[in-house]
Amino acid sequence: MYFPDSGETSWAGPTPLLEQALSLVQADLDAAGLTALRLSFAQADSNGPEPIINVQWRGTWTSDSIEISESNLDTAVVDVAAHVTQGLIELEGIYWPTCPLHGKRAKPAVDHRRQATWSCDKRGVTPHQLALIGKLHELPKKIRSKGPLWRSLADLGSP
Question: Which domain does 118 fall in, by range?
Fold first, then answer.
């Protein structure tokens, strides 16, 4: 844990809240069939006023630091999910999660009920919630059968 008032920049590991946030995002990777990607946290730097903590998998990690002092679970989940989704595009060429109905990548957001969700906002279609983050496995088969929950950038073709 990082203690901002102590002047210490070493990180003893994630808080239970951050572990829970990571677990929810991991559950959705697993639900999409991306089980080979095992998420964890990594300390990338400790030379600044706060340590830089990133999400990592397969020996690589996200380029931006997560907010380690977050105290709200839904906000922490969205932060972790946003870093993972961007990192997967940049580092793996994986476009995840994809809305099976519209083929557009769903984005993490905190909804009006203050819950962490995957939201699809395809142009020309009413924005909708795909699932709560951590609950992609609960998508009805009728929706899942419409398309994949992830694609490679090569599958998407040229813009």
Answer: 16-152
Q: Is residue 10 part of a domain?
A: no
Q: Give pLDDT tens digits for 77-120.
A: 999 999 999 999 999 999 999 999 988 899 999 999 999 999 99
Amino acid at 63: S
Report if residue 9 sits inside a domain.
no
Indicate whether 58 belongs to any domain: yes
Distance CA 107, CA 105 (A): 6
Q: Where are the beta strands (DSSP E) in the chain?
A: 40-45, 52-57, 60-61, 94-95, 107-110, 116-120, 128-132, 151-152
Pairing status of strand 116-120 against strand 94-95: unpaired
Distance CA 146, CA 159 (A): 22
CA distance 30 to 44: 25
Does any domain span residue 158? no
Total of domains in the chain: 1
pLDDT (tens digit per residue) in 13-45: 899 999 999 999 999 999 999 999 999 998 887
